[in-house]
Amino acid sequence: MRAAPRIAMSLGALLMASAAAVAARMPLESFSGVWTGQGTDRDSPMQSLQKTRCRNTVKADATHMNSHTECTGEAGLNKRFDLSITFKGDRFTGKLDYVSTERGGAPQRYAGEVTGSRTDEVADFIVRFSGLTPNAHVVLRLTSATSYAMVVSVLGSTLTDVKFHRPPPGQ
What we know:
Blueprint: H1 3-17, E1 33-41, E2 50-60, E3 64-73, E4 77-88, E5 91-102, E6 108-118, E7 122-129, E8 136-144, E9 147-154, E10 157-165
Antiparallel strand pairs: 1-2, 1-10, 2-3, 3-4, 4-5, 5-6, 6-7, 7-8, 8-9, 9-10
């Protein structure tokens, strides 16, 4: 059960980058750059939520997006996500690589397949992991041209809830 929450959290972090996929009204390329965020996170539904800070770097063109996200939790949970997705209309597919480390513990590595869809303001997707690791459900909601929210859940429990921001272009 511990692997499922970690995967969901990492998936969420990486998928935060795919918040760019949320904005059909804005060109995908406009999401390229560095985003920072803060919120709450945990590695499993049985753990307490901890404050976390994240940094997300996105590279996007009209049909592809790659992102690298690193999150540092106040209580020692660290995550790293690498996401690569391809868009076809309002649908997208891709891959996620995730590493989660708790203070004093060994890194846990996971890889999953991403499938989802987007509207003008919301990207909704599932990350499927092999074996007995549960799927992660991720919802990204664009709140402005410079901010989005990400919620990651596993088995109906919220693991990650982070708000991302970026300075407006030219600042």
